[in-house]
Predict the structure of beta-glucosidase.
Amino acid sequence: MTPEEKVGQLHQVANPDPHRDAAALAAAEFGTCIVASGEHAGNVRDAGTQAAAVNALQRAAVETSRLGVPLLVARDVIHGHRTVFPIPLGQAAGFDAQIVRDCARVAAREATADGIRWTFAPMLDVAQDPRWGRVAESWGEDAWLASHLGSAAVAGFQDGGRLAGPEAMAACAKHYVGYGLAQGGRDYAEVDVGPVTLHNRHLRPFRAAVDAGVATVMSAFHTLDGTPMTAHVPLLRDHLRGELGFTGPVVSDWDAVGELRQHGLATGTRDAAALALRAGVDIDMVTGAYHEHLTGLVRSGTVPAALVDEAAYRVLLLKLRLGLFEDPYTDPGRAAAVHLTPDHRALARRAAAGAVVLLRNDGVLPLTEPRRLHVTGALATASAELLGTWTLDGRAEDVVTIADAFRERYAGAVVTVDDGRFPDESLVRAREADVVVACVGEHPVRSGEANSVTSLEPPPGQVEQLTALARVSRRLVVVVLTGRPLALERLADVGEALVLVFHPGVEGGHGVVDVLTGDVPPSGRLPASLPWTTGQVPLHHDQRPTGRPLDPDGTVGRYRDHRDTPQYPFGHGLGYSPVSYEGVLLSAAELGPGETVRASARVTNTGSRPVLETVQLYVRAHLAAISRPVGELVGVRRVPLAPGESAEVVFELDRRTLSYRDAAGRERCEAGPFTVRIAPHAGGGVTTRLRVTDEAPGPT
Ligand code: BGC
């Protein structure tokens, strides 16, 4: 390959056109492209892609260029393609790796039918500040959950590693790394974090994704301790490539190479290109800095030719692994056969039901068929809004609204509907009904990229509207649909039940109604703590202890004006029957090197309705070289329990499960006492002590 042809593989353009860009295609000026609607495309729908259009591009690349290297076409396929699933935060509420994997598999099947073979997902940023709009795209606040679910998404997109199949797409672990710590929740803002927290919390999901075989990684926009991630040699070259052994291409975020100028590290795109390539960014997304300058930089000796060779090799190898050299084309008939099939819709319905979190229930749920039901609120009749952020290919007309799902389910009852635009009319209807379901919450433009908020309260006016409804309703169910964890203090006593649903996707209406009617037991759990009030954030379950722990029942707190705990803890979510926990029993009181201890608890459904209980395992190390969190999630089991049924839930613990990484980069698990807690959420459960020993106890 000529130097220009190699550099071409590292140049990613947006929305190329086979006619307009014919000369560039013939010259192999770019090797990959992104089909996107803008620089923060998450909330902007566009015309979409079609196999025929992608085939025309491929034909130009393959037939008119000297070497005929096919293109790799990318798009942000984040939580579904034509069949839109719950936003990642909603999928996370399922605590269910299998459903995450299945959703990613279907997204890949549908997107590849439109010629897309590379998605910029999953996002693996651990999001502990819900003011940040991109919390919607995350798996929530916990690093174990993000690792567990992020790896499942990778497996789904990449079809378990069978990348060459026509229905597999390359995944991209993003945004490497620490982006979730944007100061003040302001998108793109600087990040300051020490190595222990960076490694144990923020790098962990990336390590898991690399272990799961993720094909590509995206470097993030922000600066970390003053160095933009696009130019971060220690984290990109030394850690990602060196220690984690990642061999695939690293792509910059959108125009992030060019943004090195705004960060004040480069005066022009020439310097920016040199900095980014040296740091280990292989592909320049849309700046054009590599295209303009890399051959010159190599010629002048500023950048070693070997760096360009390695980067081009990585891109070509990925294209080879994807089977693009054998067949770069997509069967134009496939989309009609695979988009939005009944099977895909059924999966979306299950995923949506799994994303429903029952926060409070004073006995009104599950609903029994009413004589007269009133469904109200801005999201009662909403369609496109249920899709959430980053749904480039979802269509409003495909969405089942909550109102329609109720009409279908309660065909024999009177179902009245309004969208709450005229609250006085809603009040009249509410008074007439036996049950009122009010669907409020956030529009998707309030979450996603560049959409941060200073207040986690529901949007203006909604609490007043709900309070007025509560006064006149016999029974009121409040359903809050959102792209982020909200502070629901003012709804603590409003209505007889409070339900949280992260934007649930194309089958959102069915999913919500399935749970409210009890056709599906509620099983969603909070993937992030819900604070009482915005001023409490960041407030995540895995905090480190202070030197002056608070007495939970005491009268003194840290805040003079509020509590220290969240309104609802991480992992919380009710079923329609109570579940009791007994235990914890250990198979041995001590854990030596190379050993495994089984920890078990008995969980019993003490009510009269079936439940799907999400049993969580937390550990706490009481002695280590660093101060370790008050609770670390290390395992989850989802257990179906019929009324009265009880089950022994068993987890295995070994030193790996209990270990952490110290400031010098060593994996450690010191001898000492641990608390083992098996729990329905981060704020409760049953506990016991386990002692980790230096030596395995010998025969007595
Ligand atoms: C976002 C990325 C996204 C990229 C391409 C950027 O603005 O930060 O998450 O993959 O655009 O659309």
